[in-house]
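Exercise 7. Predict the structure of Probable G-protein coupled receptor 153 from Carlito syrichta.
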Amino acid sequence: MSAEQRLPGSAVGWLACGGLSLLANAWGILSVGAKQKKWKPLEFLLCMLAATHMLNVAVPIATYSVVQLRRQRPDYEWNEGLCKVFVSTFYTLTLATCFSVTSLSYHRMWMVRWPVNYRLSNTKKQAVHTVMGIWMVSFILSALPAVGWHDTSERFYTHGCRFIVAEIGLGFGVCFLLLVGGSVAMGVVCTAIALFQTLAAQGGRRADRRAFTVPTIVVEDAQGKRRSSVDGSEPARTSLQITGLVATIVVIYDCLMGFPVLVVSFSSLRADASAPWMVLCVLWCSVAQALLLPVFLWACDRYRADLKAVWEKCMALMANDEDSDDETSLEGGSASDLVLERALDYGYGGDFVALDRVAKYEISALEEGLPQLCPLRPLQDDKMQYLQVPPTRRFSHD
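Solution. The predicted structure, encoded as tokens:
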């Protein structure tokens, strides 16, 4: 049986695996949400990656599978518009997946390599802006073939939906190769740095029990209500576990999607033609990576939730609890970041409590990589620094 004849048979497998992947990724998102009391940038990016997988199997892959099955019927009429929609959505979600994996590795590298700068920066809002930029760039580039940026001598949607980049056009194929190749390379570099820094930190903690740790800082108003907080250093086991999860996601993506897509795209552009095996390779790799992400989330203790926890989370979402803290929002925390940065820069000692000058100097010296003038003092894991903010006091950027 030729590869072209295997397409209708594979369509059934794509639909079955896609349905399973849809349920598994939805469960993964609920599990991550149920285990986290406060949304963090890394968890947000993980959920967005799972949502991208859900859209990929639910829209373009399901559409292509149904079209392949319906083409076996003698009364089937070809629809060019449906092919344009498939190509735009498939490449949009492929690029969004690639960029999301790279963003995961970058955020993890930033957190373990420059922990103080990461916590003092408004990383929650940056994660939201990153996702918005990812989807905007992916959609704009992928929508261009549908509106005219393709080979006009033989259009890709005229006879069957030939969506391999060589069939669309040389310009689109080169741009797609550069974006995917650069994203994969950056993800590998960031993951290598994160792994090295995490393992080096593990060895340093074993050798020196008095190693520096970033304290947890809680911002409260005059009435004692928590306004926001800055997370402290992660426990050694948690840090190693999360870095391992991100590294596994990056490696599996590169092996199952990144490198295969690069090889298929380069081969098709070099031969100026596509082959049925290329279609099988790309679609099966897309389905496989979507199936594996929930497995990795379930294998991580930090994100593994039981049925009861997920059910309670769903009930809380449907109830729309208004008593939740402001820090659960990804857009929140900007005021606390500004207050903390101003406190560290200018030392508003009269407005805050429990943040001494020695801790301020140690944090800034650690960030700049300078030698400390006084010995570092070990902090307990449960020790927290509390800041009180007057309700009427405002700090400006002037």
